[in-house]
Specification:
single chain; mainly alpha; elongated; 3 helices
Length: about 110
């Protein structure tokens, strides 16, 4: 197996791990961290697949997309953390509450 495909597979594994955490946990901070792990998996996959042919230089477009994605991810994370603090200040809990006042899901 080529090391490029190993990095791409690791990126897919990071995405799946983040997706699992996003669906399983109720705590908003864990959900935000899961989204960051998913984004890291996407970035790793994009960078790994930019090196398709070892004899040619890497494609610069995926690298530019990753740099732009990192900036967007940092901004979205800051916004999500601020919204999480607003939810915590309003409800006293760091999980989402539905319109009936009950927790959205029972479990971990």
């Amino acid at each position: 197996m080529n090391h490029i495909y190993l990095y791409a597979l690791l990126g897919v594994a990071l995405f799946v791990l983040g997706l699992n955490t996003l669906m399983v946990h109720r705590h908003l901070l864990r959900k935000i961290l899961a989204l960051n792990v998913m984004c890291s998996g996407v970035f790793l996959t994009l960078v790994a697949l930019a090196f398709r042919n070892p004899q040619l230089p890497p494609d610069p477009v995926p690298h530019a997309m990753v740099i732009t994605g990192i900036v967007v991810t940092v901004s979205a994370t800051a916004l999500a953390l601020r919204l999480m603090l607003k939810v915590f200040m309003a409800t006293g809990k760091s999980e989402l509450i539905d319109h009936l006042g009950k927790s959205r899901r029972r479990g971990p």
